[in-house]
Each structure stands twice: as structure tokens, then as C-alpha cells.
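Side project, low priority. Logging it here so it doesn't get lost.
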Amino acid sequence: MERNIRLLAGSTAIRSLGVALYAPFLALFLRNVLGLAYDEIGLLLFLTGLIALPAGLAGGLLTDRVGRRRLILWGLAGEAVATLGLAYAFAQRSLPEAIAAATVGGIIATAAGPAGAAYLADLVTGAERTRGYTAFRIGFNAGYSAGVTMGGLLVSSVGFAGSVGLAALLIGGAAVLLGLLLDPTPYDRALEGSPGRRPTGPGPLASGPPGRSTTESLRLLVRDRAGLEVMVAIVLASLTLGQWSVTLPLYAHNVLGVSYTVLGLGLALNGLLVVFGQAPMTGRAVGQRHTTLAVGGILLYVVAFLGLGVAARFSWYPEEVFFVAIAVLTLGENLEAIPQMTLPSNLAPPGEVGAYNGAFGVAGGIGYLSAILLGGFVLQLAPDPLVVWVLLVLPAVPAAILFRHVASRLPDAANRA
């Protein structure tokens, strides 16, 4: 069991290393190479992500029916091919080809996402599940930290196309590694032994009535009112938290004046603080309510983003404030990640771990995509940098209220880290 968790965490690190070579700099390519306006960048990234969004739920339903390992391997192989297509499009400076490749890659990666969470949920429960997801997150951020550090240098030396080409090779390598070494979970083995019938049994093997239809799975989601309230809170929170992915790099480079290299180092700091800080924070969080952790994480993001606005408004040490803001929001990220990773599997009825992870992933995706769109328009229209961040943190207020409200409606065991 531990060997497979380490393998999956290691492959996650390799994949995130590849993605981080180019993803944090993608908006800068669109702005500074192709000349798109901020609002056009936000709209473009929103629309390409929106197309991929339903794949999260579809992938969750699929992993409950075809198995975790199989979908993980399909996803990595398909993402590697799509990333090669993106590298070619960047070399040609072709926006339509880049959009097509990014859309296909996004659909594949989104569909495969729930399989990793379900794989771990098959193996461990309770606090060990929380610790297991922490290992995944540490692996992701170890790769991410190395990737953004290298990415800042590679973009400056070999360009965007070269960075994306190397990313495709790394993602393909992760697929080969897992194809050779990763074992099926007990759920996978039982599913292979009875094609078309999902396995039942005690503990992590439990999956509820065999042969439950897709419609029945969707009905369970719709009838889970507390789960739906958590999803709404996730959407609202993501409108603020999602500013990290696109708006922050654009703002740091084009408003604060931070160089590509310094931007890469700042993003690398984020990864390092996760690698060395997530496990201790998870240890302290065990036994706490997931909803409380979510609220604490949101508030730290708000503090960090407002600090960036103040620094630009009053010209206060922009690079220093940038690094401090990265540190503060990473603490928030470490807190918020615990419920984000664990709560969907805890709330899922037997047999619906994949479906719940997919549905919660769609909720987060809606919020993050809307954050990209919102951030682009606010950057384009708001003249004052402090006003930019005041507007962008407003959705955090109702999100925190909803998390506090739903806490009493969730099963206590499921709501404990």
C-alpha cells in the first residue's frame, strides 16, 4: 500500500514539474508575445476551461466504473500528447492551434483528476486518508517548485515552445513509470474480476450496490443538500483563491514590475513552503473540522492579496511584499487544501467516491474559471491596484459564512481531518 502511494506521489511530482515549466507563464505569453488584452486573456482561458469542466464529473463517474489505475494511465498518456501539440502551436505562434491543444489537454487532465483521489481513498480511511492526500500534495508541490524555478529560466532562454516540449516529455515519462510499476487497488481488482459490477465489501472496498446507474449516482449528488452547500461555498471561495493562477502572475510582472526570474522564484517559494510545511500543518490539523480549516485558509488569502494591492498603491518595496504575500497565501493554501483534498471522499456514499470527487472538482473548476474571467476584467478596468484586490477578495466573505453555516449539517466524522 505505502509503495503505491509513494509511486503515485512521485509521478504526481514529475507531472507537476512538467506543467509548472510553462503553465504559470501562459498568461504572460498571451499578453507579451501574442499581444492579447487582459480581459481577452481572461475570457480565452475561461472558455477553454469551461469546455473541459464537465469532464471532471464524467471522469469521476467513469473511474467508479472502469477503475482507478486505468483512468490514471489514460489521462497521463493523453495529456502528454496534447502538450506536444501545444508546444508545436507555441513554436508557430498560432493562437487557434494553441487553443485547440490546450482544450484537448484540459479535457483529458480534468477527466483523469478524480481517479487519483479515488485511488488513495480505496487504500486508506480516516486520519490516514488526510495524511495520504498530504503526501500527494507534497509530491505535486515538490515538482511544481522545481518546475517554476526552471520555467522562469527556460522561458528566458529557450522560449515558451521549448519549455512546453520538455513538459510533454516529463508527463509522458510519468505515464511510463506508473504503467510499469503501479498496482491496481483492491477496488480495481474486484472490478476486473466482475466486469460491469462494482465491488462491495467492508472498509475501503465498500462501493455500495453493484451496477448502480449513472442516473442514480447523479441523484445521490443532487439530494445531498449539505454537500451541495459545501460546493457553493467552494465556488465562492475559488473566485478569490483562483486569482493565484493567472491574475497574480500578470499583476506581479506588469503592475508590480517583478521580473520573470523573480516571479519564478516567488512561485518556487510557494512550492517549497508546501513541501516543507504541509505535513506539519496537516499533523496539527488532524481532528479539526474541515470547515474551520477552509475558513482559516480563505482569510489568509485575503490578507495576502490585499497586501499586494497596498504595496502597489503606495510603492512599498514591491519585490519584498511579493515574497511575503506568497508566504502568507501559501499558509492559507496549506490550510484550505486539507478539506479540498479529503472532504469529498469523506462525504461520498459507498461506491461514489469517484463521482463525489468529480462533482466537487467541477465546483472548484467553476469558481477558478470564473476567477480567471473576473480577474482579467478587473485588471483591465480598475485603475487603482488596491481597488483591484478589494474587488477580487469580496467573494471570500459569503464563502466563509457558508462554510461556518454548513459545519453543523455535516456528519462529524466526515468533517474531521
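Brief comment: Confidence is low (pLDDT under 50) at residues 200-210.
Revisit when time allows.
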